[in-house]
TrEMBL record:
Protein name: Histidinol-phosphate aminotransferase
Necessary cofactors: pyridoxal 5'-phosphate
The EC number(s) this enzyme carries: 2.6.1.9
Quaternary structure note: Homodimer.
Region named Disordered: 1-43
Organism field: Devosia epidermidihirudinis
A Gene Ontology biological process term: L-histidine biosynthetic process
Keywords (A to Z) from UniProt: Amino-acid biosynthesis, Aminotransferase, Histidine biosynthesis, Pyridoxal phosphate, Transferase
Aminotransferase class I/classII large domain residues: 30-349
Modified residues (N6-(pyridoxal phosphate)lysine): K222
Record-linked PANTHER family: HISTIDINOL-PHOSPHATE AMINOTRANSFERASE, HISTIDINOL-PHOSPHATE AMINOTRANSFERASE 2
Family label: Belongs to the class-II pyridoxal-phosphate-dependent aminotransferase family. Histidinol-phosphate aminotransferase subfamily.
Length: 364
């Protein structure tokens, strides 16, 4: 058969590098996974109970708009549930935003070390991605604004950012927004908001309420429900209406809706996660910084550790892997060959990582 007669994808699709998740280890092997920024304390017991409660109702379609979950989110976060859209993970919602607001000839702007999904969804929509150099691993507001052209339709901002863990203050996010045209959509991806301890940080809800061109996207994946795949977005009524027109009618399953609602209301468990994360994030930062390594200050549930060079980073990765500790390489996916992203895990895991790396770099 001639190649000309085979189905062909849209132009540019085959130029997209697929997303590569963190390694999980070989089946059956005993490893500690510190590569995907998952909850070190598991899921909320109330969320687990809610998930199990619908085991005998799997034959029935869920309510299509995730009303149960939207109402819980509105209750806890003080948001009108009608301004919330839920999705099959936050990636689902990011894809929908790109599909609705980007097209051929458009551009989307992002920071140099921003979340690697942004280029994928931008190019999939037929638009071009514009990368802006970071300022010391932190998004550069002046650089982002300078990159805006008449073709710009979206600015992607992960805050805190993955994989660096750095963040923009509320004042800087507002300065970024103030410099954008009203027809540019600012997407604030607050995937790690539950773990932020900085007093000058904002999740973005106030800005969403004040503006007509800002949306905030969140996820449950970092707070114990990664397997359930739940994301949510809040935005202006006009944007919510647009997304609801094309999202899947049952894009969040019933067990996930109920687990998400229970996890949302379990504020005590969320507080425990935050406290555990802050303690061991501070520990690993203090212990590793200055030992021929540099830990980028993080407000997320992971740290980015920079080594003297790419060879040291590769050696550290392999050594940790051999000891059953899987971390995330960020060379190919993010262009940081001398770095490793390490999720905050259990006390035992954090002490183990620190001991191995301090000894390794001293020897190397």
């Amino acid at each position: 058969m001639s190649d000309d007669l085979r189905p062909k994808p849209q132009p540019g699709i085959l130029d997209i590098s697929p997303y590569v998740p963190g390694k999980s280890g070989a089946p059956g092997s005993k490893v500690v996974k510190l590569s995907s920024n998952e909850s070190p304390l598991g899921a909320s017991p109330k969320a687990i109970e809610a998930f199990r409660s619908v085991a005998d109702r799997l034959d029935i379609y869920p309510e299509g708009s995730s009303k149960i979950l939207r109402e819980a989110l509105g209750e806890v976060h003080g948001i009108d549930p009608e301004l919330i859209v839920c999705g099959n993970g936050s990636d689902d919602l990011l894809h929908l935003l790109a599909q609705c607001y980007l097209g051929d000839g458009d551009e989307a702007v992002m920071s140099q070390y921003g979340f690697s999904v942004y280029p994928i969804i931008t190019k999939a929509a037929g638009a071009a991605i514009v990368m802006v150099d970071d300022d010391g691993y932190t998004a550069d507001v002046d650089g982002l604004l300078a990159a805006v052209t008449p073709k710009t339709k979206i600015v992607w901002l992960a805050n805190p950012n993955n994989p660096t863990g750095t963040y923009l203050t509320d004042a800087e996010v507002r300065r970024l927004h103030a410099g954008l045209r009203k027809d540019i959509l600012l997407v604030i991806d607050s995937a790690y908001a539950e773990y932020v301890t900085a007093a000058d940080y904002s999740v973005g809800l106030d800005l969403v309420a004040e503006a007509s061109n800002v949306v905030m996207v969140r996820t449950f994946s970092k707070m114990g429900l990664a397997a359930a795949r739940i994301g949510w977005m809040v935005g202006p009524a006009e944007v919510v209406d647009v997304i609801n027109r094309i999202r899947g009618p049952f894009n969040v399953n019933l067990p996930a809706q109920l687990a998400g609602a229970a996890a949302t209301r379990d504020v005590e468990f969320t507080a425990q996660l935050k406290a555990h994360n802050a303690k061991w994030r501070d520990y690993i930062t203090e212990e590793l910084t200055g030992n021929h390594m540099h830990v980028v200050p993080s407000q997320a549930n992971f740290v980015l550790v920079l080594f003297p060079d790419a060879d040291h980073a590769a050696l550290a990765f392999e050594t940790l892997m051999q000891r059953g500790l899987i971390v995330r390489e960020v060379g190919k996916s993010y262009g940081i060959p001398d770095g490793l992203r390490i999720s905050i895990g259990s006390e035992q895991a954090m002490i183990g990582v620190v001991g191995i790396l301090k000894a390794l770099v001293k020897i190397a």
